[in-house]
Amino acid sequence: MREHYIGLMSGTSLDGVDGVLMAFEANHAQVLTSASTAMPPDLRTALAALNQSGPDELHRASVAGHGLAQLYAEVVQRLLQQADMPASAIRAIGAHGQTVRHAPPGPQHATPYTIQLNQPAWLAERTGIAVVADFRSRDIAAGGQGAPLVPAFHKEVFGQTGRSVAVANIGGIANLTALPADGRVLGLDTGPGNALMDEWCQRHTGHWYDAGGAWAANGTVAESLLGVLLAEPYFQQTGVKSTGRDLFHAAWLDRHLAHHPGLNPADVQATLLQLTARTLAAGVQGTDWRGQAPETLLVCGGGALNHTLMAALRACLPGMEVETTARLGWPIDQVEAAAFAWLARRCVQGLAGNEPQVTGARGPRVLGAIYPA
């Protein structure tokens, strides 16, 4: 039976909302249409501020969540118009929400939790479509990290029987999915993706991001600074792990820069880019592929548009092809949104959406809460 779902994603880069309308039939998944909208500057600023403690947080979080839900609704309407479908044709919307705090199990978090701002009840009311939201909480309740969640979907669409596959999503945070030839599903957040580069670019150029990595390409890596950044304990952690802007934020960078005064801003940008490339490559190289390493690293997310970053990844992974997921028919800005459409369908069907080997949960769990139309 053919079913239609919508997936919505606004990632840690805070650049906008990506949406897809998907058709599912048996084990086949297909994107019928996609749409994106940029994040308004005031909403982007409000969401970024909520990554750190501040006054009147509950009010500001509620207002920002409502603003995000309005963007979600706009993207949903565009998808329906483009596909020429009524809302009644959509089984459910998978709306991830905006992560503003992520405190997974670990010695530094006595009470693990994760917060994704959203207004799923309002979205269901506005669109007339059931909404599935709050995907991470159940995994954390089961002792998991609550992230990354996309490896299960990556297995569905990129997995190849008898061949190892590596997939990297580079948003604000970079995460890696490892699909060894023996059928295991592994994954982790490797560290910062675009978040620190975007912060630095905004501060020194006034632009939201370094288009194509052109500014970083004009800089020279400051090896002394890079060495200090790579000494961050998170990078030395083994086993399941996830992270976010709670750790990798502007104050974290400034703390290290205080011991390296006078650096050219372009050199800092080049160093941050190298940090992303090296930690992601270390994740690939540190995976137990059991003698069958992948030939290709497939990259999606906004980082795939950073040509300088892609070149740095190729240099860090000699002998391995580094290509985008578009090579397999999945445009780089559709993969994450499609993953949450897929996860919404799993929730509606009462099927597990997590991969315990990835998150560390005690077992498979149905992820998400359903808000009926």
Describe the structure.
Helix 2 (57-83) packs parallel to helix 3 (120-127). The protein has helices spanning 41-49, 57-83, 120-127, 137-141, 151-158, 195-205, 214-217, 223-230, 233-236, 250-257, 265-285, 307-316, 335-349, 356-359; strands spanning 3-9, 16-25, 28-38, 92-95, 98-103, 113-117, 131-133, 165-170, 173-179, 186-192, 296-300, 321-324, 369-371. It contains 14 helices and 13 strands. The strands form three sheets. Strands 3-2-1-4-7-13 form a six-stranded mixed beta sheet. A five-stranded mixed beta sheet has the order 10-9-8-11-12. The chain folds into two domains: 3-148 and 333-371, Nucleotidyltransferase, domain 5, CATH 3.30.420.40; 151-328, ATPase, nucleotide binding domain (Nucleotidyltransferase, domain 5), CATH 3.30.420.40. By secondary structure, it is an alpha/beta fold.
Q: In percent, how much strand structure appears in the residues?
A: 15-25%
Question: How do the helices and strands follow one another from N- to C-terminus?
Answer: EEEHHEEEHEHHEEEHHHHHHEHEHHE
CATH names the topology of the largest domain as Nucleotidyltransferase, domain 5
Instruction: Indicate the mean pLDDT.
Output: 96
CATH homology-level superfamily of the largest domain: ATPase, nucleotide binding domain
Strand count, sense and barrel status of the largest sheet are: 6 strands, mixed
Q: Count helical runs.
A: 14
Runs in which pLDDT lies below 50 for 5 or more consecutive residues are none
Number of strands: 13
User: How large is the radius of gyration?
Assistant: 20 Å
- Spatial gap, N to C terminus: 21 Å
Supply the number of structural domains.
2
Structural class: alpha/beta
Q: What's the helical proportion of residues? A: 25-40%
Give the strand order, joined by hyphens, for the main sheet. Answer: 3-2-1-4-7-13
CATH C-level class of the largest domain is Alpha Beta
